[in-house]
Structure formats: structure tokens, C-alpha cells
Write a structure and sequence with these properties.
- The protein contains 16 helices and 22 strands.
- By secondary structure, the chain is of the alpha+beta class.
- The strands form six sheets. The protein has a seven-stranded mixed β-sheet with strand order 8-7-17-18-19-15-21, with helices on both faces.
- Helix 1 packs parallel to helix 16, helix 5 packs antiparallel against helix 6 and helix 8 crosses helix 9.
- The longest helix has 17 residues.
Length: about 475
């Protein structure tokens, strides 16, 4: 009797779903008895990856890069033939905007945690009292148990004081998650800080020790590279390269799925157009609330429907270079939450990513919307551009209107890993194993929001499927 192929459905065509599909395609090519289908609601793949290529500009309206040390994305880029397209960012000074002043981020600061005493003592960002309070980290007792979860804000405030948190750590870390530091889970977002405290008793001592171990001696002839990687033709080129590797008849765009139900040992997928499809296993990579709606027949996914998410927008402004006069050398800045500004950060993209901008032009990429305050995102394009330029003109000279601009609104796009996330997620996964074996959840709502984290989750889901047989 001929063995029938196991049928696997992937729901969502973002980077997680693409990574899963690519791994299934490889397994199939290597002899695995499987078939796969990827379903995407929209008419394009890539999810939050969105690149605009216009007039020689390469403009990212979603993520613009990934951490080079997280090498799963680099590996996948090699597998799809894009290794030669990878570029490191140009490193340079980054700043914090506090009030109306740009303050250089102190040298040696790792996620805002000081690891070099001299730059920290000389920074104008913090008051003498704030610096003295931060030094208390050397003497403070441990504030977390071995498996305890508390908010990032509570953890850092207890260790380093309010001023360091509000002026340095919060702008940097909330820029990653677009969240409220006093609600975000330490265990789910930066468990390494918990481990450092457990091992060293002091964050500063522990982070400095880890940095010293990684440090490599460099000669002056060695140019330092940035921490991030992207692609010469934009992240969208990565999506396109993966799609080219997939079986064309296995990719279904414009497929509006409305419900998933398990009957006996199979999953039934019901689509808005009335069609139904049956699969042995399903990988769901959609945002948590969408996933909860698809699985509304089951009581196990209430946490996913309750998860908070932040609405943000990316605003890209292109100017002729002579119209932008910036006395600050560097790559951009983040904004202190207590400053009275609409923008949360701005990248001087023409400095950070030289491939993105034609000669003679400047490209500014600003961000608006934060946890609990995203009203600006719903305003008109003109109002958003006006608000962004008002803020930017407080610290730079910008003449006239931009040559052109792009605004991309991301509604409820940034899932919030609030305190208790890891425990609640573990319960969801336990319920799935017990009641819905063959269902797999992956993506930015669960175990990391960075592009490599999403790739890891998509590939891990496929590994679980392959190991089940």
C-alpha cells in the first residue's frame, strides 16, 4: 500500500510562515512524505516586511534590519541565494532626545545599562543624583527569585533608579517592543537580565563582565561594523527570494480563512468564499487575536484574544540633502517618554544605511504611536507629517516640504509580552498538546518579535511535525 502524503497547512504568509514553508519544501525535496499549502489573506507575502523602491531609494516601512548575532536569518539568506546582498549598517553615534536636547547615548551602555564608568559619569543625560542612584546597583540585594516574573520597569527601577530608566533604558527598550516598560515581562523579553542578576548580584558588574569576555582586540585598520544586517534591495527582496523557492501551486494569496475545527484526527479549514480544506497538521502564524478568532470553537485561547498590542506608524521623509541641516553626526535618536514630543524615535537613514538613499538626498525615518497613546496614527497623512516635522525642526533645520513621503500605519501590530506571558503561553501550549495535537502556534506574538526569532519559531514548528512521524 502506498503511503499517503501528510498534508500540512500554514496559515499566514509573514516571515514565520515563509520560513516554515521553506523548511517543509526542503524536507519534501529530501524525501519526506508531505505536502504543504501556505494561505495568506492579502495579495502579498511578507507580513510586516514592506519595502518601497522608488527613484533610487530603498525605504523600509516595517522592520529595517535584524541583529547579526541571531544567525538563523543569515543562514536562510544563504539558502535562498542572497548572501551577497547582505549589508551591515554604518555604525555611528545614537542619541536620546530629552526635552529639546539631543544627548549622546553613553559609550559602553548595553540596552541602557552602563558598563563603562567614565562615559557614564560624563554624560549630560543624567543628573549627579541619578548617576549616584544607579551606582546603588553594586550594593542592592537581588530582587527576583529564580523563576520569578516582574515588569522590566520594576526591575530596572529597583536596580538603577527612576532617572536612568526614564531617560535611557525606557526609550531604548520600548523602541523594540513599543510597549509600557512597567507592564512588559522581564522573563519574556530580556530573561538574560534576570540571569545576570542571579549570577552576579549586580547588573552593571554582570553586563560589564559579559562585554569584556566578548571583546576582541582590533587594530586601527579594522573598521568596526554595525550590529545589524539588511539586504541591498531591501527586506522585501528576502521575501521574494523565499517565495521563488516554494512550489507555486502551494502558495495561496487572497485566501480569507474564517475558522479552524478539528474533527477526528484532521483539521478542517473553512474559508470566507465557502471552500473547505482538510489537513493533518496546521501551523498558525497569524497575530494572537486573529489566531484566537480562527479557533473560537475552543476554550483554550482566551489569553491570545486578551493580549494587548500597540498601534504604530512609520513615517519616511525624503529631502534633497541641502534642505536638511543637522549639526549632530550619527545615525538617529530615541525619545524620552517624559519629553513632550509626538515622535518616539527617528533614524537618519541616509547615515545608517547608505545604500538606501541616492547621492545628494537625505532620508528620515520617524516613528509615532506608543503603548496607551496611539491617537496620532489615526490622523490624516498631512497631520502626521506636520506633527513629525514640528518635532524634527526642534533639533534640526529642515527647509520646505519633502520631495515625497510614505506613511505606513500598523494597527495593533506590536504584541505586548506583559508580566505572566511565559506562564500563560505555556498553559496554552499544554492545552494544545492535550486536546489539539497537530496544531502549532508560531510568530511574533509568542517567543520573540525579531525577524530571526520568527524564523526560528516557524522552523521549530516544522521540526515538531517531522519528528512526530
Amino acid at each position: 500500500m502506498v503511503q499517503k502524503d501528510r498534508r500540512i497547512a500554514i496559515i499566514g504568509g509573514g516571515i514565520t510562515g515563509l520560513a516554515a514553508a521553506h523548511k517543509l519544501k526542503k524536507a519534501k525535496a529530501n524525501g519526506a512524505s508531505i505536502s504543504y499549502d501556505l494561505f495568506e489573506k492579502s495579495e502579498r507575502l511578507g507580513g510586516k516586511i514592506r519595502t518601497e523602491r522608488v527613484n533610487g531609494f530603498v525605504i523600509e516601512l516595517g522592520p529595517d534590519s535584524y541583529l547579526a548575532r541571531k544567525d538563523s536569518m543569515t543562514r536562510l539568506a544563504k539558502e535562498v541565494g542572497l548572501e551577497e546582498e547582505l549589508l551591515f549598517n554604518d555604525s555611528g553615534q545614537a542619541y536620546v532626545l530629552k526635552g529639546e536636547t539631543l544627548h549622546p547615548i553613553p559609550g559602553g551602555a548595553i540596552m541602557g545599562i552602563p558598563t563603562e564608568i567614565k562615559p557614564f559619569l560624563h554624560t549630560s543625560l543624567l543628573s549627579p543624583i541619578g548617576k549616584l542612584r544607579a551606582a546603588g546597583d553594586f550594593f542592592s540585594p537581588r530582587i527576583t527569585g529564580k523563576d520569578e516574573d516582574i515588569s522590566l520597569g520594576h526591575f530596572f527601577r529597583r536596580r538603577l533608579g527612576n532617572e536612568v530608566v526614564d531617560s535611557l533604558i525606557e526609550p531604548l527598550l520600548s523602541g523594540i517592543y513599543a510597549g509600557d516598560l512597567d507592564k512588559l515581562s522581564l522573563k519574556a523579553t530580556f530573561p538574560q537580565f534576570l540571569q545576570v542578576e542571579q549570577k552576579y548580584g549586580s547588573l552593571i558588574r554582570g553586563m560589564k563582565g559579559a562585554k569584556d569576555k566578548k571583546a576582541k582586540p582590533q587594530t586601527e585598520a579594522v573598521k568596526s561594523t554595525g550590529m545589524f544586517l539588511t539586504f541591498r534591495r531591501g527586506l522585501q527582496s528576502f521575501v521574494e527570494a523565499i517565495e521563488m523557492q516554494l512550489d507555486s501551486d502551494s502558495v495561496h494569496k487572497g485566501s480569507d480563512l474564517i475558522k479552524i475545527v478539528k474533527q477526528d484526527k484532521h483539521f478542517h479549514l473553512y474559508f470566507k468564499n465557502g471552500e473547505e480544506a482538510i489537513y493533518d497538521e496546521v501551523i498558525i502564524t497569524t497575530p494572537p487575536k486573529v489566531t484566537a478568532n480562527l479557533l473560537a470553537d475552543y476554550p483554550y485561547f482566551s489569553y491570545l484574544s486578551e493580549m494587548e498590542s500597540t498601534t504604530v506608524a512609520t513615517v519616511a521623509l525624503a529631502y534633497k540633502k541641502e534642505k536638511v541641516i543637522n549639526r549632530h553626526e550619527g545615525t538617529g535618536f530615541v525619545v524620552s517618554k517624559k519629553s513632550n514630543h509626538t515622535i518616539t524615535a527617528c533614524t537618519w537613514t541616509h547615515n545608517k544605511w547608505q545604500h538606501s538613499t541616492p547621492e545628494g538626498y537625505a532620508l528620515l525615518r520617524a516613528y509615532v504611536g506608543r503603548a496607551g497613546d496611539s491617537a496620532i496614527v489615526s490622523r490624516s497623512d498631512e497631520e502626521i507629517v506636520s506633527a513629525v516635522l514640528y518635532d524634527l525642526k526642534q533639533i534640526m533645520t529642515i527647509e520646505g516640504k519633502p520631495e515625497f513621503y510614505f506613511i505606513k500605519r500598523w494597527q495593533e501590530a506590536m504584541p505586548q509580552y506583559n508580566v505572566g506571558h511565559t506562564y500563560k503561553l505555556a498553559k496554552v501550549k499544554e492545552d494544545i498538546v492535550r486536546n489539539l495535537p497537530g496544531l502549532h502556534l508560531a510568530g511574533g506574538g509568542y517567543d520573540g518579535i525579531g525577524l530571526p526569532d520568527c524564523i526560528n519559531q516557524g522552523e521549530a514548528a516544522v521540526e515538531q511535525i517531522l519528528n512526530r512521524w
